[in-house]
């Protein structure tokens, strides 16, 4: 009998012997405490190794710090280019940074915005709340999308392509952090599977539409903006990243870091493979959103996160970097680059410069989704 597309004959490397897909595994307090110390220790070490990049995560931008005298300011109302006729797709648009991005982009006249979200009610509420702030209604549609499910991604891309023959801005924004060691339906660690593999598959299925849109113009402006993080600096290496079993043995924050490193590698590799598409990754800063809710249910992570929370950016200012990448004049962006807030380029980021690793991860991820017929 043919294996079901979502019950792959996973090899030993990618299967997770102790924890089957969807099963919840709860660490003991002692394990959580040890993991927290290890994770926060490695983040602190990264901060010392890369102080300026880390500074951009929390602190005011140079422009804010010098009360407008230095650095560049970015104001969505003033600086986002005219989006008339453009189609936009934002994943995880029902809350946090994705919702704020949709709200700001909607003010610049796009013909349609798709909000990829897995929860119908949350998506409807978010669309109602966004529409209520706009001076005239914009065509914002909920597209059911669960990035931890290949079936859901396939259906979402089929609905999208049946309704739209162009896509100008794809914002790969959805993300999850602080999860227990569980896998997606396809057998990938949940954070890596959602944040990276799910987005890879979605982008793969939408790529023909992105390329067709770029081909319509002699000076195309088609963008893919991927939400990454400075947390990527603490990612385990490729061999662990791509082995569900080994990744599940890492702390939850290191598993998240692996997904964010993969986001940067993906964005840079997409730019190399398809230079007609402007593909960049952005760190939004450390932002007070729902992202940390799951992590704060852990008694050991709760207090460190509450302290860090005192210095977090608001969702409004946190969304500025992805809005800059999606909406600022195209000439300001460099294809394949990684940016911290706002529009600060990091040419030497280890995942941007490692061309061989970018190719290796792309090929690995493509082979993973091909196992399911994509
Ligand atoms: N906040 C920060 O400090 C920070 C720092 C660095 C990078 N980032 C990145 O910024 C992005 C946005 O995060 P945020 O701060 O806005 O977090 P958030 O408020 O928690 O929003 C995350 C969004 O992702 C969606 N999502 C999660 N799992 C999903 C799945 N399986 N399928 C579809 N959608 C899913 C959530 O939907 P539900 O509402 O249904 O859960 C929500 O809409 C993420 O990629 C995150 O990694 C954030």
TrEMBL record:
Signal peptide: none annotated. Residues 1-23 are annotated as: Disordered. GO terms for molecular function: oxidoreductase activity. The keyword rRNA-binding does not apply. Gene3D superfamilies: NAD(P)-binding Rossmann-like Domain. Keywords: NADP, Oxidoreductase. The keyword Oxidoreductase applies. Pfam families: adh_short. It comes from the Eukaryota. Residues 14-23 have a biased composition (Polar residues). Belongs to the short-chain dehydrogenases/reductases (SDR) family. This is Short-chain dehydrogenase/reductase family protein. The lineage of its organism: Eukaryota, Fungi, Dikarya, Ascomycota, Pezizomycotina.
């Amino acid at each position: 009998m043919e294996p079901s597309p979502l019950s792959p004959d996973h090899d030993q490397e990618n299967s997770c012997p102790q924890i089957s897909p969807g099963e919840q595994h709860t660490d003991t307090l002692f394990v959580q405490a040890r993991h927290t110390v290890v994770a926060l220790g490695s983040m602190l070490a990264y901060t010392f190794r890369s102080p300026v990049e880390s500074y951009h995560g929390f602190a005011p931008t140079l422009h804010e710090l010098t009360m407008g005298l230095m650095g560049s300011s970015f104001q969505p109302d003033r600086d986002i280019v005219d989006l008339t006729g453009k189609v936009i797709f934002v994943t995880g648009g029902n809350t946090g940074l994705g919702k704020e991005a949709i709200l700001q982009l909607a003010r610049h006249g796009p013909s349609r915005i798709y909000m990829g979200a897995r929860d119908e009610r949350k998506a409807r509420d978010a669309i109602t709340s966004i529409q209520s702030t706009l001076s005239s209604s914009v065509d914002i549609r909920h597209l059911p999308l669960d990035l931890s499910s290949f079936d859901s991604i396939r259906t979402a891309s089929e609905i999208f392509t049946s309704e739209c023959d162009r896509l100008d801005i794809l914002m790969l924004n959805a993300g999850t952090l602080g999860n227990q060691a569980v896998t997606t339906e396809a057998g990938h660690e949940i954070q890596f599977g959602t944040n990276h593999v799910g987005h890879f598959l979605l982008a793969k299925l939408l790529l023909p539409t992105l390329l067709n849109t770029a081909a319509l113009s002699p000076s195309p402006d088609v963008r893919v903006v991927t939400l990454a993080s400075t947390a990527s600096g603490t990612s385990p290496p490729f061999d662990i990243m791509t082995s569900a079993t080994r990744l599940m043995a890492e702390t939850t924050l290191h598993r998240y870091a692996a997904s964010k490193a993969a986001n940067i590698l993906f964005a840079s590799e997409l730019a190399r493979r398809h230079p007609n598409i402007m593909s960049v990754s952005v760190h939004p800063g450390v932002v007070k959103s729902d992202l940390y809710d799951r992590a704060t249910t852990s008694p050991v992570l709760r207090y460190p996160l509450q302290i860090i929370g005192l210095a977090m950016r608001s969702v409004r200012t946190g969304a500025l970097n992805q809005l800059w990448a999606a909406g600022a004049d195209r000439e300001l962006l460099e294809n394949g680059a990684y940016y911290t807030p706002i529009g600060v380029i990091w040419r030497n980021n280890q995942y941007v410069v490692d061309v061989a690793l970018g190719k290796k991860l792309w090929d690995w991820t493509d082979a993973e989704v091909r196992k399911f017929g994509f």
